[in-house]
Design the sequence.
């Protein structure tokens, strides 16, 4: 049975003939929590169109600490360095929540996704959206409170998954936000007390999305508005 391309927002936007041409090159794969899809300054052998789960692009410092610079879910694609003509990157693609993807070899991707294809032009716009996210998050990490950043991050994860409940430990959240676990515990408790989320045994459930949006910094609405402008709010409509 051929893979279901409709679960990925980028692939779902393609006309049938272009999807059919890609299908022989797409391999369904499962990725686990904390699995590395590509590593720092290592050859990138595959690109991934996510169907479920969340992958973070992270900067890895010399002491081993991490900080997230981009969140990718079923709306997106892991492999922008390959799309831009590189074969490695100074960051790491790390699974934040286990899931599934359609994997394509870098060689096949370069051969099939050429400037005359719709996917190539869609990925140009997606790359701009990712650049917007990385630059906005640099400002966010510097200027906004942990509570605002926590809410922004939870909303972005929810968007990438398309569901209101998901597994996330405080330790991992702290790593992604570049703060101490104790600080995340305090913020998570306050947000739970406000009945915006329920957090128990490593499971987060969003109870009040509107309240989370009101508590998050403006970065969330800026990024969502710009992503929808570039990619399109309806995955079946080309931008």
Sequence:
């Amino acid at each position: 049975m051929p893979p279901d391309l409709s679960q990925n927002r980028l692939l779902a936007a393609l006309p049938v003939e272009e999807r059919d041409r890609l299908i022989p090159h797409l391999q369904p794969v499962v990725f686990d929590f904390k699995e590395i899809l590509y590593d720092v300054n290592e050859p990138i052998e595959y690109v991934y169109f996510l169907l479920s789960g969340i992958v973070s692009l992270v900067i890895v410092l010399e002491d081993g600490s991490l900080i997230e610079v981009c969140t990718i879910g079923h709306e997106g694609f892991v492999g922008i360095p390959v799309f831009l003509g590189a074969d490695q990157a100074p960051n790491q693609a790390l699974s934040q929540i286990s899931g599934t993807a359609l994997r394509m070899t870098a060689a096949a991707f370069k051969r099939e996704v050429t400037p005359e294809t719709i996917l190539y032009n869609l990925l140009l716009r997606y790359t701009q959206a990712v650049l917007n996210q990385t630059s906005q998050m640099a400002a966010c990490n510097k200027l906004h409170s942990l509570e605002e950043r926590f809410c922004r991050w939870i909303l972005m994860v929810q968007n990438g998954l398309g569901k209101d409940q998901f597994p996330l430990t405080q330790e991992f959240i702290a790593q992604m936000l570049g703060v101490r676990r104790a600080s995340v515990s305090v913020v998570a408790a306050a947000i739970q007390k406000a009945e915006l989320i329920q957090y128990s045994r490593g499971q987060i459930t969003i109870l009040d999305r509107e309240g989370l949006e009101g508590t998050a910094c403006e970065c969330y609405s800026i990024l969502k508005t710009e992503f929808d402008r570039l990619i399109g709010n309806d995955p079946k409509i080309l931008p």
User: Anything to note?
Assistant: DSSP finds ten helices and eleven strands in the chain. Residues 5-113 form a domain with the Jelly Rolls fold (CATH 2.60.120.10).
